[in-house]
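Fill in residues.
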């Protein structure tokens, strides 16, 4: 579990750096970011409507 956690942290760091580089206009980072963003979609918990 520790190795998996460390691998995920490293992958997320790489994703974040490629996203920042693409945002800053680094042309070669854009295709990398486009590939990785398919893997790192945010699914998250959906909030339930208020019952008030």
């Amino acid at each position: 579990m520790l190795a998996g956690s460390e691998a995920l942290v490293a992958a997320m760091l790489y994703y974040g750096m490629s996203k920042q580089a693409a945002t800053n206009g680094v042309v070669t980072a854009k295709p990398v970011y486009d590939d990785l963003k398919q893997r790192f979609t945010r699914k998250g918990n959906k909030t339930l409507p208020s019952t008030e």
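The chain has two helices and no strands.
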